[in-house]
């Protein structure tokens, strides 16, 4: 299985900040990567697919980049509703696997 | 907008079979893969497997020997059966519409507890 490792595991930031979350794959996954946002008690929500394509309806403050093994999710101008847990997921090969999550908390 | 809703027993006894159904509304099953994902309490996400609307499947090898995913296009729903469950199968189970590996739309999830 392809291992997905996110860093950091948790992150404190303030409203208005810009933050970056990193996801590293244990082997080349090209650009077959999705980023999700999950709020407590809710289902995950797709934000970015194919590493850098914005899911319909997702604000442009979310952006993704990377290819191969290293990827980033950047969120600009944090708002209270952005504080959540973020997951990356690869779909280059079966089984699809997720990172362990990055919890973004209010400082 | 497509909506998904999971249903099934919230409590299953050890060694028995966990059965869930995902009803899809606001769209057809056609053209998409339909996934099951689970999340153990306080833990991360695990992809269980998926089924194409036409019936082909791909499963997580860690669960494959116990798993069956099926589809009923006449009812616009798909189902999960996980046999011989243990406490380790306790989780929130989600269904999701999947396109190109991207789980675009998710159900709200249903907690299944394995306990006697």
Number of helices of chain A: 0
Radius of gyration of chain A: 13 Å
Overall pLDDT confidence of chain A: 97
The fraction of residues assigned to DSSP E strands of chain B is over 45%
The portion of residues assigned to helices of chain A is under 10%
- Element order of chain A: H for helix, E for strand: EEEEEEEEEEE
Helix/strand-derived class of chain B?
mainly beta
- The run of helices and strands of chain B is EEEEEEEEEEE
The structural class of chain A is mainly beta
Rg for CA atoms of chain B: 13 Å
Describe the global form of chain A: globular
Q: Which tags fit this structure?
A:
heterodimer; A: about 110 residues; mainly beta; 7-stranded mixed sheet; B: about 120 residues; 4-stranded antiparallel sheet
Tell me what the structure shows:
The complex is a heterodimer of chains A (107) and B (116). Chain A is mainly β and 107 residues long. Chain A has no helices and eleven strands. In chain A, the strands form two sheets. In chain A, strands 2, 4, 5, 6, 9, 10 and 11 form a seven-stranded mixed beta sheet that branches. With 116 residues, chain B is mainly β. Chain B has no helices and eleven strands. In chain B, strands 2, 4, 5, 6, 9, 10 and 11 form a seven-stranded mixed beta sheet that branches. In chain B, strands 1-3-8-7 form a four-stranded antiparallel beta sheet, with no helix packed on it. Chain B has strands spanning 3-7, 11-12, 18-25, 33-39, 45-52, 57-59, 67-72, 77-82, 91-99, 102-106, 110-114.
Short structural description:
The complex is a heterodimer of chains A (107) and B (116). Chain A is mainly β and 107 residues long.
